[in-house]
Amino acid sequence: MNRQTIGIILNGVTGRMGYRQHLVRSILAIRDEGGLALADGSRIQLRPVLVGRNKDKLQRIAFLHGIDEYTTDLDEALADPGFDIYADFLLTNARVPALRKAMAAGKALYSEKPTAETHAEAAELAEEVENAGLHNGVVHDKLYLPGLLKLKRLVDSGFFGRVLSVRGEFGYWVFEGDWQSSQRPSWNYRAEDGGGIVVDMFPHWNYVFEHLFGSVRSVYAHTATHIPQRVDEQNRTYDTTADDAAYAIFEVGDGTVVQMNSSWCVRVNREELVEFQVDGTHASAVVGLFNGHVQPREITPRPVWNPDLADTHDYRSDWAPVPDNAEYGNGFRAQWEEYLRDYIAGTPHRFDFASAARGVLLAERALESDRTGRRIDLGGKTEAR
Ligand SMILES: NC(=O)c1ccc[n+]([C@@H]2O[C@H](COP(=O)([O-])OP(=O)(O)OC[C@H]3O[C@@H](n4cnc5c(N)ncnc54)[C@H](O)[C@@H]3O)[C@@H](O)[C@H]2O)c1
Predict the structure, then answer these.
(1) Which residues form the GFO/IDH/MocA-like oxidoreductase domain (predicted)?
(2) I need a labelling partner for 41 at 20 to 30 A (CA). Which of 164, 184, 257, 348 fits?
């Protein structure tokens, strides 16, 4: 590819993810550094156009960040051959028609997760984009975070021996909106608007488990709507209809058992908002989004159960920190850079719409497990290609 700029249509930049992570921390950060640095030392500049429903909001963002182009007409942006990539950060339930339009216009696609609300639709999209031969990628941001990069390094080095089990704890208290405003949008708590913690988080857990430990083979999930009413952005009380917590067990890879708690109704007593403890035959690790600690078998203490004596051993002090050994930037930007380099090189992006569809499948099967009270076999369908 021989060119100086890549045109990117950014749809949904007034939203939480679209504005902060994709526009400001990724696209504008790259633009403001003079463009995307390539291996040969050259740079390709980015040409963003903002798309949304509210012209005033777009104008404000464009003015604030020195962006020349914005429009409320997606078709107009898609018709412009100067734009190569369509990026979608809309609410999930508005995404599929927009992605299909972009596909029809022959654009490369980059999408927030999940790509669709149902596995049927997500799988259809994956097939359509593959058949059309369009470059495609889906946000798998957690894999680009320092903690999970360190964990991947440990797994790949064989540090754990055989990985027996993983315990994941994700969550924090999301205020109800009455006496303190909620720190998440209200649609997250309405099933009819695409909300729910399973739909939100299980697509992440699918690619995290797949990438680190192998494909998810089965899921058992118990969900709850712990808080029955919340107060929305307009100060109106509404009934919550979506799950705000999910307690799940997965069989992953060659028999690794993963327990994962996901909740917007827990108070944090951890070092980070998500933590995974991995226990293997040779070693264990506890990692969060940024940091990690390990304990190899050679320095594993020998606790003896004795309820009559207070245990004075400081178990936490037996763990050693995992060093950074690299510089880590913003995870969203790191994936954007990889996606753009793949686009320029004409090589498929490793986290594609098929991977996105597997994530939606896991969320769907988890909800089925909750409804039926059964463990659901995924029949190898979340197999990575
Ligand atoms: N990767 C992650 O860690 C992560 C985290 C949170 C959310 N997300 C995903 O990002 C997406 C956006 O979530 P958010 O929290 O930023 O939501 P948000 O409500 O803050 O933003 C949604 C955006 O979509 C636009 N929009 C809403 N309804 C629309 C419609 N009918 N037509 C066109 N545009 C519409 C809004 O104007 C806004 O720009 C969701 O798909 C969500 O699953 C990903």
Answers:
(1) 149-285
(2) 348
187 Cα to the center of ligand 1, angstroms: 10
Pocket test residue of 89, 193, 200, 232 for ligand 1, highest count of atoms within 8 A of CB: 89
Q: Tell me the longest C-alpha to C-alpha distance in the chain.
A: 76
10-residue stretch averages of pLDDT, the chain, 385 residues long: 84 96 98 95 96 98 98 98 97 94 98 95 98 98 96 98 98 97 96 94 97 97 98 98 98 96 98 98 97 98 94 96 94 97 97 98 98 91 47
What residue has token string 């992605």?
99
Same domain, 96 and 119: yes
Kindly state whether residues 338 and 198 are assigned to the same domain.
no
Tally of domains within the chain: 2
3-state class (DSSP) for residue 330: coil
Give the count of beta carbons closer than 10 Å to the beta carbon of residue 244. 24
Between the CA of 304 and the centroid of ligand 1 the distance, in Å, is 51
Domain identity same for 81 and 178: no
Q: What is the pTM of this model?
A: 0.93
